Amino acid sequence: MGTIIGKSIFPGIVIGQPYIERKKRINIENYKISSERVEEEIKRFQEALQKAKMDIKKIKMDLQGKINKEDLQILTVHIMMLDDPQFITDIKKGIKKDENNAESVVKKVSNKYIEMFEKIADPIYKQRALDIKDISERIIMNLTHEENLDANLNEKILVIRELLPSELLKIYYSGIRLNGIIMEYMGETSHTAILTKALEIPTLMGGNDLFSLDWGDQIILDTTSLEGKVISNPDKKTLNRYEEEKNKYKNKIKEIEASIYKETITLDGEKVSLHLNIGGRLDITEVNKKNPDGIGLLRTELIYMDAKEFPDEEKQRKIYDNIAKEFGDGKPIIIRTLDIGADKKLSYYKMMDEENPSLGCRGMRLTLTDKDLFKNQIKGILRAAKDHNIKMMYPMITNLREIKEAEEFVKECERELKEENKEFKQNIEIGMMVEVPSNVMLADVFIEYVDFFSIGTNDLTQYILATDRYSPIAEKLYDSYDPAVIRAIETVAKAGISRGKKVSVCGEMAGEEQAVVALLSFGIRDLSMAPAYIPKVRNLIRKIKIEELKLIKEKLLSAIDSNEVKKILNDYLEEIEGRNRE
Predict the structure, then answer these.
(1) How far apart are CA 123 and CA 552, in angstroms?
(2) Which residue in 361, 388, 413, 506 is the catalytic one?
(3) Which of 228, 242, 323, 563 sees the fewest Cβ atoms within 10 Å?
(4) Does domain 263-272+440-581 have CATH number 2.10.50.10?
């Protein structure tokens, strides 16, 4: 019996057989072609390119309604990359110049881009390298007609070094069902990780010595806690225990589903609001089944990414108005203003090249330098808010000057709307994302200029710890449970709550059971998350006593490493689960 430890990406308990994939890549021949065949070879490449685009579009269409729209944006990014004129030109030129077959040139050109992006420290470019690897393999597969899919994979636990988003979608789309995934490396916020969560496949990342597993092994995959594990060839006692744990977990899922329409209130009567993180339009009927209290983060950049040009004021008003009407019941909707830059690009908007986009012109830094595109959005939001409970939020604020400049700009938009005799909401509530260390250090100052805070724990963790989430080495340091991050969240919560302002959390932590305990202990009563996590979080909150969290808070603020933080939180979770079983 052996144990492999890793990081849980999506929770579950699976007992079964592994499918070991040591990642044999497509065999690519490199051969010369005659000058007469060059145009024919270019045509082969173009046909393979078009098929790759059509395949992605078809998969995207078929997955609509099955996974969240924001998760589908991964495929939109891939389509945009397949349309990149520089990438296409480089391959065509390579075929002409080298007089080599299309497969080898696609590989050569894509490797050049991959190597270039991998040398750049910024994590965004690490993901870009994986995206290029993904789209190039799609093209090559179409050129070679190799499918690389094995029916024996069905209902197995896939053990693999690296899994690209397109490969995972191809498996899903083929009808093959994976019981679990164990990967050597996958960034927690990478495209593949996002998809495993969307498809609800129990997944473990970063396990040591994965390939010590063998085809004939019986394995247990347990990702029900932050630190996941794989147990190979368990003894009878361990196997029986996990069969029991698996049944308990199934019962817990049933309990979660049964609590969907119950009130989100603690055992001692504290109400907690659970909101959605969404991107653009989606199936409102489906997400309303989770019984959310509102939309805590409407990512408007996904609306822009779906468009072929900047949506004008009227179009944006209609989009926000329609979302509010479909959502209904006057529930609050927080619209985050455009947050492009870094990993989010628009095909129709040229942005400057930067060595480190994550620290460059993004979020409010960008929109305040191009106020014409910002103006259409602000005016569209103000007009839509007239008939709905809509609030506005700024992303990536660095200093007070940006807040003041944005405030003046909103006033300018209001003056213009008055002059144009257009109805709009006056004195709209405006908040800010808390994402960078300056926000934490000056939280007591910032809160005087906004109506609410929303803590984006993903970026906040990255910037506080100065970590690259996509680096196999540095990614291990990316930990939202690091005491520096925990204390930062408490500082922000105290600054807002002590002044009677709302403080919410809209990062990954809002949907994690361990983190929910910490956030509630700091006085936070508004959480915003992906739709899938709302039932689980609601069920947990209904078992918590706020009075008990005073001691938890003291312990958390005294902790000196993330393991201690996690132990404090896990011990409390075990305590309330034990109490629930009695």
Answers:
(1) 34
(2) 506
(3) 563
(4) no
Q: What are phi and psi of 149, to 5 degrees?
A: -120, 135
Whether 58 has a pLDDT exceeding 80, the answer reads no
pLDDT tens digits for range 128-180 = 888 898 899 889 888 887 665 677 888 999 998 888 777 787 787 778 889 99
Q: List where CATH 1.10.274.10 sits in the chain.
A: 37-144
Residue 227 in contact with residue 32, Cβ under 8 Å? no
22-31, 63-72, 357-366, 490-499 — which is least confidently predicted?
Answer: 63-72
Query: Does 2-24+149-237 carry CATH code 3.50.30.10?
Result: yes
Most confident of 54-58, 105-109, 123-127, 491-495: 491-495
191 is catalytic: yes
37, 59 contact by CB (below 8 A): no
Please state, in angstroms and rounded to a whole number, the distance separating the CA atoms of residues 406 and 364. Answer: 8
Residue ranges of the chain that CATH labels 3.20.20.60: 263-272+440-581, 294-428
Sheet holding 13-16, edge to edge: 13-16, 219-222, 227-232, 2-10, 203-205, 180-183, 157-160, 18-21
**Average pLDDT over the chain, rounded to whole?**
86
Kindly indicate the confidence band of residue 194, based on its pLDDT and cuts at 50, 70 and 90. Answer: confident
37-144: what fold? Answer: Enzyme I; Chain A, domain 2 (1.10.274)
- What count of residues does the chain have? 582
Q: Which of 78, 191, 275, 388 is catalytic?
A: 191
Please tell me the CATH code under which domain 294-428 is placed.
3.20.20.60
Q: Where are the alpha helices (DSSP H) in 64-189?
A: 69-82, 85-98, 102-118, 123-144, 165-174
Evaluate the CA torsion angle 531, 536, 537, 542 in order and state its sign.
positive
Band of pLDDT at residue 64, cut at 50, 70 and 90 = low
